[in-house]
Amino acid sequence: MKFIETIKSVWKIEELRNRILLTLGFLLVYRFGAQIVLPGIDAEQLANLATQTDGGLLGLLNAFTGGAFSNASIFALGIMPYISASIVVQLMGIAVPYLQKLQKDGESGRKKLDQITRWLTIAITLVQGPGYIINLFHTLPESAFMMQSQTMFITSAVVILTTGCIFAMWMGERITENGVGNGISLLIMVGIIARLPASFIQEFSSRFNESGGLIMVLIELAIWFIITLASVYLVMAIRKIPVQYARRSAGGGYERSVGGARQFIPLKLNASGVMPIIFAQAIMFVPAALAGLSDSDWALSMKTAFENLFGFWYNLVFGLLVIIFTYFYTAVTVPTNKMADDLKRSGGFIPGIRPGTDTDNFLDKIMSQITFPGSIFLALISIFPAIVVNIGVQDGWALFYGGTSLLIMVGVAIDTMQQVDSYLLNRHYDSLIKTGKNRKAVA
C-alpha cells in the first residue's frame, strides 16, 4: 500500500508525470522502429540472420539493439555508433589539447563536444552501415532481396541505417533533457529488457522438456537475484574520505566563527562503470578477426576459441582485460590531482594529510586500494554468464546473469530512480526508494 501511495505521489506532480510520459513515448517509438524491416528485404526470409545471432559476439550485439540487428530493421545499428563516438571523443580528450580546453569551458565547451560526437557518430555509421549490408548479402538467400538494382539497395539501406541511428540519438538526447533518466542509457536498457521475456521462456521450456523442471528454474532465479543484488552493491558502493573545512572569521565590527563543516569525498568502488567491459569486448573482436586472415590450423583453432563467447580462453582473456581497463579508465575519469587542487582552493583538507601533493598522493593510494577489489568483482560479474552456461543455462538467458547487460540494467535503473526521487523530495514527498506517505509541505 505504501508503494502504491508513492506511485500516486509521482503521478500528482505534473512536471514529473509529463516527463515520464514523454520518456515512455520515445521508448515505445524506438521499440516500434526496431520491428520495421529495411525496404527491399523480404521479412519472411530473415531466419538465417536470426540463427547467426543466436550466440557469440553477434548475439551480444543483437541483445544491445533489442533484436533490431537480427530483424534487419531501420534501427539495426541501434545507438552503438554513438556510444563508440562518445568513447573515442572521451579518450582523445586525454591527448588532444583542443578537446581538453573544451572540457574545461563549461556549458559552451560541452555543447561543442556534443556536436563533435554527433558528427563522429555519422562517420562511424557510414562505415558500419555498409559492413552490415555486406553481412546481409552473405547471410540471407538471394531471393530475400527484392530490389533489382543492388547499388540502389545498398545506397538506400546505408542512408536509412544512418538516419535511424541519428534519430535514435536525437530521441536519447530529448529524453535526457525533457524526460527522466539518461536517454542513451535507457534506449540500450529497453533493448536489453526486450529480450529478457523470450530468453526466460526459452529457458523455462528447456528445463521442463529436458531436465531439472521447476526446481532448477527456481534455483536459477535465486542465483539471478543474488548476482543482481551483488551488482547493485557494486554500483552503489563508495569509500567515504572525511574532509574538514577550516573555520574563518567574518562580520563587521565583530567577529563570528563560520564554516568548519565536516563533509566527505565519496570515492566509488567501481568508478569506471561498465566502460571496462565495453572496452574489453571491443578488443575481443580483434583476435578472431586477425586469425581469420590465415588458413593455418593454429589460426583456425584461435578463431574458434575467441568466437565462443562462453569458452574458457575467451573468458580468461576477457576477465584480465576487464581488470586492466578498470585501472586505466579509473585513472582517466578520477583526476585525484584536480580533486586535491579544488580541495585546497576551497579551504578544505583531509584530517592528518597536508594539502596539495600529499592529498593527491593519499587519494591516489586510496583509489588504487579500492579499485583492486572493484576490478576483481567486475571481472567476475563479466564472466559469470560463461559459468552458468556450463551448468546448463541457455545462452540467451545466461547473458542476463552478468556482464554488460546486467550492469547496464542495474546502473540505469538506479540512476532513473534517483532522479525521480529528487523530484519527490523537492515536492516534499517521501523517497521513492524507501516508499512512504506524503510529508507535510514546508511553508
Mean pLDDT: 80
Strand order of the largest sheet: 4-1-5
Distance between the termini: 28 Å
Beta-strand fraction estimate: 5-15%
What is the share of helical residues? 55-70%
By CATH reckoning, the class of the largest domain would read Mainly Alpha
CATH architecture of the largest domain: Orthogonal Bundle
Tell me the major beta sheet: 3 strands, antiparallel
Enumerate how many helices there are, as a single number.
Answer: 17
Number of strands: 5
Q: State the low-pLDDT regions, or none.
A: 252-260, 435-443
Annotated CATH topology of the largest domain: Preprotein translocase SecY subunit
SSE series: HHHHHHHHHHEEEEHHHHEHHH
Approximate shape: globular
Q: Which terms summarize this structure?
A:
443 residues; mainly alpha; Preprotein translocase SecY subunit; 2 domains; 3-stranded antiparallel β-sheet; two-stranded antiparallel ribbon; 17 helices; 5 strands; 69% helix; globular
Polypeptide structure, described:
It is built from 17 helices and five strands. With 443 residues, the chain is mainly alpha-helical. The protein has two domains: 15-194, SecY subunit domain (Preprotein translocase SecY subunit, Orthogonal Bundle), CATH 1.10.3370; 211-401, Preprotein translocase SecY subunit. It has a three-stranded antiparallel beta sheet. α13 (312-333) packs antiparallel against α15 (357-389).
What secondary-structure arrangement, pairings included, does this model have?
Layout: H1 2-12, H2 14-33, H3 47-52, H4 56-64, H5 80-95, H6 97-103, H7 106-139, H8 150-178, H9 183-209, H10 213-236, E1 238-245, E2 247-250, E3 256-259, E4 262-268, H11 275-291, H12 297-307, H13 312-333, H14 336-345, E5 348-349, H15 357-389, H16 395-398, H17 403-426
Antiparallel strand pairs: 1-4, 1-5, 2-3
Helix pairs in contact: 2-8, 2-9, 5-6, 5-7, 6-7, 7-8, 8-9, 9-10, 9-17, 10-17, 11-12, 11-13, 13-15, 14-15
